[in-house]
Structures are given as C-alpha cells and as structure tokens.
Amino acid sequence: DPKIIQKPKYLVAVTGSEKILICEQYLGHNAMYWYRQSAKKPLEFMFSYSYQKLMDNQTASSRFQPQSSKKNHLDLQITALKPDDSATYFCASSQSPRDTQYFGPGTRLLVL
Amino acid sequence: GDSVTQTEGPVTVSESESLIINCTYSATSIAYPNLFWYVRYPGEGLQLLLKVITAGQKGSSRGFEATYNKETTSFHLQKASVQESDSAVYYCALGALNQGGSAKLIFGEGTKLTVSS
User: Fold this and answer.
1) Which residues of A touch B (CB under 8 A)?
2) Considering only CB atoms, which chain A residues are within 8 Å of B100?
3) Tens digits of per-residue pLDDT, B17-37?
4) Neighbour-count burial of A58, counting CB atoms closer than 10 A to its CB (0-12 exposed, 13-18 middle, 19+ buried)
C-alpha cells in the first residue's frame, strides 16, 4: 500500500486559475516537505513543515501556500497559475528533519 | 553556494557491464552534509537507494555502492554489473540541516540510465 499519497496524479489547469495539490502520509512522520521539478531542471526544495509548523520557505512567490490541516497532511495551494508553474510536484516526509526523506509519486501539473 | 553536479545523461550501458555515475557537491554553508542517492523507476516516484551521513563511509544497496569522499567532495555511484531492471533516473542529493532545525535536500540534475540487453 502506498505510504505517501498525492492527488491528483495529473492536473491540467488554465492560466490564472487556482489549484490544490493533496499530500497525505501514513508513515507516522512529523516532518513534511514539498519539492518541484520543472522540465530539464533538478528537483527544487519549496517548503518544509515540522509538527504542522512552517520551518522553511524557499519559494519566492506568495502564490504558493502550503496548508496543513492535519499532522499527516500537507497540501499545496497554487493561485494565479502561470505556464511556468508547469512541473511535477513531489511531497516528502521524514520522521524528523534529521531523518531520511521519503517521497510520494508526484503530481504532474500542466498550466495552459 | 550549496550545489550538486552529476553525470549528464542519458547514459546507456550494456547488461552485465559496470557503471559509474559521477556526483560532486559543494557544501559551503552546511556543517555536516549528508549524501544520498535516490532512484526513480519508470512510472514510479523517487525511492531512496542509499544514504551516507559520515565522511569516509560507504553506503550500499541492491548492488550499488557510493563512498562519501570529503577530500574530493564526491559521492560517485557504482555498480559492478548492471541489469536491465536498473534502468531508471538516478539522483544524487545533498542533505542540509540548518540551525533552525529545518532540513532540505539539494538535488543534482538526475542521470537517466538505460541498460540494454
């Protein structure tokens, strides 16, 4: 059974719209993260949370807002979507920030 | 700054041949960097392949090995004899834990490996 669930798997959006990417982990971890991989670029760290508190934000734009409604959830809301936001977004989690991060399967977002 | 550079892909190797994927890192602002290799098989998410947290140590998994070399700032991935099932994208990553207690991974570009039979 998958331990980190990301929904949806694929997402097509129009420029200017808003989408929410879902991430749930069933590993009992206390830290969660978002990464993004755009075409031809390395995976890029976006946010980290620990015990539902924001620890680090390296996303320049406020259009990206993580939302942690439960300890094992870290959703990513993206507003005013742009074509440059097209990427695969990966959620990850770890027992603590010192521990190994485990990744979800990713959500592939295409903004037209 | 902190960064990771790895062998530019794609790389094609014949089955049963040896493999090396180079990875070098720069960890100017990280006191105790951890090093990782992740792998992404076709249609799947990233999986941890191996991890080394101490300089001079070697990690191994599924026949793959990598040694954390602080002197050369390298963490090359090697396998003596590859199989078709090893075809995947391999990512070298540098783990950073800052004083505030937050962590992040800094990834290389990824190396796509195709093993031909």
Assistant:
1) 4, 31, 33, 35, 41-45, 48, 50, 55-56, 58, 90, 92, 94, 97-98, 100-106
2) 55-56
3) 999 999 999 998 887 889 999
4) exposed
pLDDT in tens, A39-53: 888 999 999 999 999
Cα separation, B23 vs A30, in Å, equals: 30
pLDDT of B116 above 70: yes
Residue of A nearest to B103 (CA): A97
| Average pLDDT, rounded, for chain B | 94
The pairing of beta strand A10-13 with beta strand A107-111: parallel
Count Cβ atoms below 10 Å from residue B74 Cβ, excluding itself: 17
In whole angstroms, give the CA distance from residue A42 to residue B73.
Answer: 19
Q: Which residues contact A48 (CB under 8 A, 6 or more apart)?
A: A31, A32, A33, A54, A55, A56, A97, B102, B103, B104
For residue A8, whether the previous peptide bond is cis, meaning omega lies within 30 degrees of 0, is yes
